[in-house]
Structure formats: C-alpha cells, structure tokens
Here is the input.
Amino acid sequence: YEPVTVKVGIPVKLIFHAEEGNINGCNGTIDIPKYNIEKELHEGDTEVDFTPTATGTISYSCWMGMIRSTITVVD
Here is the structure.
C-alpha cells in the first residue's frame, strides 16, 4: 500500500491493483476506519471512493492491520 496525498473536499478515487495470485487472507481487504470503509480487493483493479472532510493524516491498512500506509489530506 502506497502513501498518498489528497486535497480536502475533493472526491478521491484510490485504485488498488492486485496481480493474479497475490491476494491472500491478510492483504485481501482494505480498511480505512476514518471513513468506515472496508473493501475487499479482487485480482485486477479495485476502486475505493471517498471525499476527505478535514486535513490531517488518515491511516489505512489491511483488515489485520499488518500492512499499513497513510493518506495525507491537505488544503
């Protein structure tokens, strides 16, 4: 999972790409607790959409919390 920077108030479309055979029990679901998002990944592209409502740093991870990254929201 890559860190990303986005702008507050502008809709975000994150696209996660998984190669065939690379999804497993740990990395198969993206969890963004701040926005109550839990999205199962599929082979190929999986899109996660949300609109950030405040500046700051948002953590996201696999459902187990072992693979982590951040979304930085700026003005």
The first strand starts at residue 4 and ends at 7. The chain has a mean pLDDT of 94. The beta strands are 4-7, 12-18, 29-32, 37-40, 44-50, 56-62, 68-74. Residues 12 and 50 are 5 Å apart (CA to CA).
